[in-house]
Amino acid sequence: MAKKRAQTMEENRGRLIAAARKAFAEQGYAAASMDELTAQAGLTRGALYHNFGDKRGLLAAVVNQIDAEMAARAQEIAAKAGDGWEALLAEGAAYIEMALEPEVQRIVLLDGPAVLGDPSRWDSQNKCLEVTMSTLRRLIAEDVVKPVDPEAAARLINGAALNAALWVAASDEPRDVLAKAVDAFRALATGLLAEPA
């Protein structure tokens, strides 16, 4: 019985997140109606409050889901570039490039920070930070990267990628800004190399 209840709760969470993701992408967080969203999911406001506390909690869950998907996609792109320095740069550039996607722009890069606050405090961003720190520790040990503090370097690299993505998302000409942002990101990060390429 408890297992079935837990499964039902998980299914309800999934339905609410899917409905919210669609509503937030199409209408934006502020304009999305909780009554319409819960009706779309075939659930009540009570289910929303039980699972997420409020609309803000639901946005946090949606941002977390999309941000995790973005990280996984960026890591896949990085893996194709190898396992060293170029992979790290490819991952950052891929994250910046995802700012061209309407769902990412609106939910993660525009509404997310406006409603949830500083992205560097989000769980999903901190998971990315851990991965970047691990990569940097390895690159420092291999003398590819200068012997700097891995956390400081990871925060700066991830912060640069995030801020570049925020710039692209907020720009009137995102494709034009993208090229500039990726070039600057690569140039900035290259300063960490032990022997610049």
UniProtKB/TrEMBL annotation:
Keywords assigned: DNA-binding
Molecular function per GO: DNA-binding transcription factor activity; transcription cis-regulatory region binding
Name the record gives this protein: Transcriptional regulator, TetR family
Species assigned in the record: Pseudorhizobium banfieldiae
UniProt cross-references to PANTHER family, sorted A to Z: HTH-TYPE TRANSCRIPTIONAL REGULATOR RUTR (PTHR30055), HTH-TYPE TRANSCRIPTIONAL REGULATOR UIDR (PTHR30055:SF223)
Top-level taxonomic group: Bacteria
Entries under InterPro entries matching the protein: Homeodomain-like_sf, HTH-type_TetR-like_transc_reg, HTH_TetR, Rv0078-like_C, Tet_transcr_reg_TetR-rel_C_sf
Pfam families, sorted: TetR_C_41 (PF21351), TetR_N (PF00440)
Domain HTH tetR-type as annotated: residue spans: 10-70
DNA-binding region boundaries: 33-52
